[in-house]
Structures are given as structure tokens and as C-alpha cells.
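Handoff note, outgoing to incoming analyst
You'll be picking up this chain. Sequence as last confirmed:
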Amino acid sequence: MKQVSPAIRNNAKIVEIIALQIAIGKAFGRLRHNSMLSTSTQLYIGQVRDNVIDESAKDLEELLLVVTSGKLEMGDQERLQRLDKVYASMKDKSAFVQDFTSNVNLLIRQKTNELESTQQLKKSYEIH
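Most recent structure output, in case you need it:
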């Protein structure tokens, strides 16, 4: 069946997949150009971001194939299974990004605290 049924086309997981993609982009966007991070750390974060975005794009391509009429010859059950696979994949990426960005934010806080402590010690001992 090349036609996509309304049950597939209107599935709530489609909106959730797109929302997860947007959230992933925003999470990485908040990490950009932080002066507390070394150049090598920023490059590493950029590589991780690029990999996650590339993999997410593959999921979105798969989603388009599943929900667009005339693209693939498959029944509703197979479309639902593929939709579930894309949804699970995006949920995994989202969980990874949340954990990764939490760790980076922790690193930023630690470096900020370290800098503040160093500045306070210098001030206390009047070292310039």
C-alpha cells in the first residue's frame, strides 16, 4: 500500500520526533562558544554534535519515507513498526544529548568555580 493512512500520518510520535530533534539542536546551541571550555573541548563537543545531528537527519529521512504517500510500498503495520523504530532512536539520542550536555555544564561550573577560587586567593594574597 503506497497510501499512508490517517492513523499513521496523524500519529503523535511524529510531532514528538520533531520536537526531540529541535530540543537536541537547542541543547547543543546552548554550549556554543563558552569561554570556560578549551578549544579542544569545544572541537570535541562540535564533533559529537555533528555526529548526533547526522544520525538524527537519517532518522528524519526515514520518518519522511514512512509518512509520505507514494514513497514506499508497505502496509500500516510495517509503517507503524518503522515509526516506532525512528521514535526509539530519537529518544535514545535525546537521552544521550541530555546526559552529555549535563556533563559539559558540570565541567563549565567546575571551571568557573576554580577560576573564582583562584581569583579570590590572588586577591587574598594580593598577587597580581
